[in-house]
Design a protein that fits this description.
Order of helices and strands: HHHHHHHEEEHEH
Number of strands: 4
Largest sheet: 4 strands, mixed
Helix content: 40-55%
Strand order of the largest sheet: 2-1-3-4
Strand content: 5-15%
């Protein structure tokens, strides 16, 4: 399992789940159905003209229009099939070495966005190698939490820690790397983590909002 392509594995698992749920199932992405989520992921890989609006608010209107057009013009089974194929050769997402860095967290989080929006969900028992990959990619949380006025340290059961932010009073978030990944991606309501530290810091952190 050392050479397992976890980005590809999570993509396949998400596509299997999308094919099962259809386009109208809920997700943890506020206001989005599974159809919206699939269109977002396809846009991200196949529409470089529209993808910048995912991160740049000034361009978000155009991105939203393109996403709606993808939904309107692409039958859902076709949309899932294209997503399963992965990025085309000309896409930046298809460059050698980019897939793991760009897609492991992306597809893991969105897979859980669909899984954990369903009644009766339970956390998956993930391979240790995937947990390790997710731990190594938690540094993305430094960007996502950059405006949180709390010193945040992540801790996993084996004792490893990562400090994400350095300002303010201290709080520690403890959990498996997979759960910490969801927490740093703004899915705190469903992430199985424990928050400890100075009461004021924990309170601020509990009330702060951010999204991947």
């Amino acid at each position: 399992m050392v050479n397992q392509n976890w980005a590809r594995a999570e993509r396949e698992a998400l596509c299997d789940l999308l094919a099962e749920t259809g386009p109208d199932a809920p997700t943890l992405c506020e206001g989005w159905t599974t159809g919206d989520l699939a269109a977002h992921l396809l846009l991200r890989e196949r529409r470089p003209d529209a993808a910048p609006g995912i991160m740049v608010p000034l361009l978000a209107g155009y991105t939203a229009r393109v996403q709606r057009r993808i939904i309107a013009e692409t039958p859902f089974p076709r949309l899932v099939a294209l997503l399963r194929q992965g990025p085309p050769a000309w896409s930046p997402m298809g460059l050698p070495g980019v897939e793991g860095a760009a897609n492991t967290v992306e597809f893991f989080v969105h897979h859980e966005d669909v899984r954990r929006a369903r009644p009766g969900w339970e956390p998956r028992e993930l391979p240790a190698a995937l947990e390790d990959q997710l731990w190594r990619r938690l540094s993305v949380g430094r960007f996502l939490l950059r405006r949180v006025p709390v010193q945040v340290t992540l801790a996993e059961p084996e004792g490893r820690t990562q400090r994400l932010t350095k300002n303010g009073k201290q709080a520690r978030v403890r959990g498996l790397p997979s759960e910490l990944t969801l927490w740093t991606a703004g899915r705190g309501k469903v992430a199985r983590v424990e928050l400890t530290g100075e009461a004021e810091a924990v309170n601020v952190l509990s009330q702060s909002r951010w999204r991947m």
